[in-house]
Amino acid sequence: MRVYxxxxxxxxxxxxxxxxxxxxxxxxxxxxxxxxxxxxxYEVSDIYSIxxxxxxxxxx
Length: 60
What we know:
Blueprint: H1 6-27, H2 32-42, H3 47-54
Helix pairs in contact: 2-3
């Protein structure tokens, strides 16, 4: 799995937009099991929607 830096993220956002950057970064992190859990729990099917619904709702 490739490790992305913040500068990589900014560059990917510039080239592909925020949605493409989030998909690219999370594609290496999320396994099928984890994604299936979120698909069932939140009833969303793509990784960008999971990012928008799950990440802001998590408490540090």
